[in-house]
Design goal:
There is one protein chain. The protein is an alpha/beta fold. It contains nine helices and 15 strands. The protein has helices at about 1-15, 20-30, 30-40, 45, 60-70, 80-90, 135-145, 165-170, 185-195; strands at about 50-55, 75-80, 100-105, 115-120, 145-150, 155-165, 195-200, 210-215, 225-235, 240-250, 260, 275-285, 290-300, 305-315, 325-330. Strands 6, 7, 8, 10, 11 and 12 form a six-stranded antiparallel sheet that branches. A five-stranded parallel sheet has the order 3-2-1-4-5, with helices on both faces. A four-stranded antiparallel sheet has the order 9-13-14-15, with no helix packed on it. α3 runs parallel beside α5 (about 60-70). It is elongated. It starts with a helix and ends with a strand.
Length: about 325
């Protein structure tokens, strides 16, 4: 029964990528698409005459970038039916002889080559790992990447910070206190347990950011994607804190001149936005104080692409009356 549930949820995940709207949003994400384009075009010397594997190729944009950069041949793999459109797009751009597109699950298909020189993939999800394809990329790395082969991108970092967000929190969480004269507080627990993916204004950020977790795609193992790590946040001004937020940076360190992009509130908009974890109440903080935290993430038992996230924090204020801490659990599904 569990296997059937997982198979169903996985099919739902890939079917969601059948819709053109998702691909339009990703292609119009200039930060995302231009960074990949620049990482490939500006490093044509790395791609020239190489065999490239595009994991989760979607509409084929990364595959076509690789061909333009001089790749000998590109193999694109995607489970979604969008690959049918990718074939038409590749043909329309005169690259059908250079790009082989295969529909299927990476772990189940057989590539027409024994090894590849480079893996490119846009595998990242919200909070980096929600609905991400990283486990599939790692499987492809272990099975097909030549010794000394390259991965684009190859590093990722998850950051944490804390924000003042009283007005929106009241609108989202406080709403349940009184719904047309009725007590709906049982719904508050549900609302608090669902992280919000939204754009956070930089002026709302109250603390310095802290790197919580880093991934090196050359060495990371699937089991490492279940993690529990500490973080420390330094308060930058007197304010209130209503939530923690998370975002990620991605690096292309194989490039001659390393490239990266950030999905943080300080950077240009991306479709990943930021992930907001509301706390139960709020903190009153002063400049120079610190918040000690711990964040844990693991795939849910029901679906490996969904996440169980746990945030624990302890705030010891200069005035003990303001000190507090709690353990919060969230589900990204």
């Amino acid at each position: 029964m569990e296997a059937a549930k997982m198979a169903h949820s996985e099919v739902h995940y890939f079917q969601s990528y059948n819709h053109h709207g998702i691909h339009e949003e990703m292609l119009k994400d200039e930060v995302r698409t231009n960074t990949y384009k620049n990482a490939i075009y500006q490093n044509a010397h790395l791609f020239k005459d190489k065999v490239v594997l595009d994991v989760g190729c979607g509409t084929g944009i990364l595959s076509m970038f690789a061909v333009k950069a001089g790749a000998k041949h590109v193999i694109g793999v995607d489970m979604s039916t969008i690959i049918e459109k990718a074939r038409e797009i590749v043909a329309a751009n005169g690259m059908s002889d250079k790009i082989t597109l295969i529909q299927g699950k990476m772990e189940e298909i057989v590539l027409p080559v024994d090894k590849v020189d480079i893996i490119v993939s846009e595998w990242m999800g919200y909070f980096l790992l929600y609905e991400s394809m990283l486990d599939t990329v790692l499987w492809a790395r272990d099975r097909y990447l030549n010794p000394g082969g390259l991965i684009f991108p190859d590093k990722a970092h998850i950051y944490m910070a804390a924000i003042e967000d009283g007005e929106y929190k009241e609108e989202k969480i406080g709403f349940w206190n009184n719904v047309y004269g009725f007590d709906y507080t049982p719904m508050q627990k549900v609302a608090l347990a669902e992280p919000l993916v939204d754009t956070v204004e930089l002026k709302a950020v109250v603390t310095k950011p802290s790197i919580a977790y880093s991934i090196d795609l050359y060495t990371v193992k699937v089991e490492d994607l279940t993690f529990s790590v500490p973080f420390t946040l330094e308060v930058e001004r007197n304010d209130y804190i209503h939530a923690f937020i998370s975002w990620f940076d991605v690096e292309f360190s194989a490039c001659h001149k390393p490239l990266k992009f950030s999905t943080g509130p300080h950077a240009k908009y991306t479709h990943w936005k930021q992930t907001v974890f509301y706390i139960t109440d709020y903190l009153i903080v002063n400049k120079g104080e610190t918040i000690q935290g711990h964040i844990s993430s693991k795939p849910t038992d029901q679906n490996p692409r969904d996440l169980d996230v746990r945030v624990e924090y302890n705030f010891e204020a200069t005035d003990p009356k303001r000190s507090r801490g709690e353990v919060l659990t969230y589900k990204m599904c």
